[in-house]
Write a structure and sequence with these properties.
- With 302 residues, the chain is of the alpha/beta class.
- It folds into two domains: 119 residues, 2-Layer Sandwich (Nucleotidyltransferase, domain 5); 162 residues, ATPase, nucleotide binding domain (Nucleotidyltransferase, domain 5), CATH 3.30.420.40.
- It is 38% helix and 20% strand.
- Strands 3-2-1-4-7 form a five-stranded mixed beta sheet, sandwiched between helices. The chain has a five-stranded mixed beta sheet with strand order 10-9-8-11-12, with helices on both faces.
- Helix 1 packs parallel to helix 2.
- The structure holds zinc ion.
- The site of zinc ion has 6 residues, from loops.
């Protein structure tokens, strides 16, 4: 039996998988984002609770909202400071007495789409998470791109958007990663809220902004137009660079069909290829992509 954990900035989801990689049951808790020992205690107690009768977890695979260096196990995570830095993997393995494998959540998601989702039969899959933040993972011929430091697909950082924000008369916020004004600051759920707040002084959650946009409410048009411009510029560059066959998207913002269809149309218009059929498509994995992909880690990649 395998225990799979998806540690996100808001919630942590647990999944129990059998030997044939069937997902048997799940459970979700709130993530204690600033408290490593608290998070490890929660994982330990959920691990005991989820193991039924004679079940023993021989492996624990973890998807994180962050990156994990395959050599040093150093983790970077803006959304979950509790796991950042060195030692989380060791701490967890000591607490559970079980080997753990850790990978970026968007990489796990891309792996799941490439094998079980809409990316099946596509050679190059760029999986994108558009949730609280923005992240990506790259799967080539069924395997994750095995980079040097575990950051492959991190399209939301080092984008240097400060000048663009100033041109919009917005005082640019800086990303926790230290690289200045990254797309992650303005290009996903928290970013859409931040952008709208900066433009209108109205504190609306991203979901509500997109609902208003659906009804053609003109109080959010400028916000969504700028958001679309920022995200599509970066996505178009990434599409030019790796030339993916398909770009599935998951995360909270992917629930807006209008957003995904618009993003797809705008990105295709900006890329060199000028594709005539959809490239950016919603996930078909019903929100389980990170768990499903993390469950595949030991057998397939990294
Ligand atoms: Zn950043």
């Amino acid at each position: 039996m395998k225990l799979v954990i998806d540690i996100g900035g808001t919630k942590t989801e647990f999944g129990v998988f059998d030997e044939k990689s069937n997902l048997l049951r799940t459970h979700t808790i709130s993530t204690p984002v600033h408290n490593r020992s608290g998070l490890i205690d929660e994982i330990k107690s959920e691990s005991s609770r989820l193991a039924q009768s004679n079940e023993i977890f021989t492996q624990v695979n973890i998807s994180i909202a962050g990156t994990s260096n395959p050599e040093s196990a150093q983790i970077t995570s803006s959304n979950v400071p509790a796991i950042a830095g060195l030692g989380f993997k060791d701490d967890l393995e000591n607490a559970l007495s079980t080997p753990c494998q850790i990978a970026n959540d968007a990489s796990c998601y891309a792996l799941a789409e490439a094998h079980k989702g809409i990316g099946r039969n596509h050679a190059v899959v760029l999986g994108i998470i558009l949730g609280s933040g923005i992240g990506g993972g790259i799967v080539i011929n069924g395997s994750l791109l095995p980079g040097l430091t575990g950051i492959a697909g991190e399209l939301g950082h080092s984008n240097n958007l400060a000048a663009r924000m100033k041109a919009l008369e917005i005082v640019p916020d800086e990303c926790d990663c230290g690289a200045g004004t990254c797309l992650d600051v303005y290009g996903a759920g928290i970013g859409l809220n931040r952008l709208h707040m900066a433009l209108t002084n109205n504190d609306l959650p991203a979901k509500e902004i997109l609902s208003l946009w659906d009804t053609k409410d003109d109080t959010v048009l400028k916000t969504v137009e700028i958001f679309m411009d920022l995200v599509s510029d970066t996505l178009a560059q990434i599409v030019n660079f790796i030339d993916p066959h398909i770009v599935p998207i998951t995360g909270g913002l992917s629930n807006s069909q209008k957003l995904i269809e618009s993003l797809d149309r705008v990105v295709r218009a900006k890329t060199l290829a000028k594709l005539e059929t959809p490239l950016i498509v919603p996930s078909t994995l019903k929100g389980n992509g990170c768990l499903l992909g993390a469950a595949m880690l030991p057998n397939i990649a990294i």
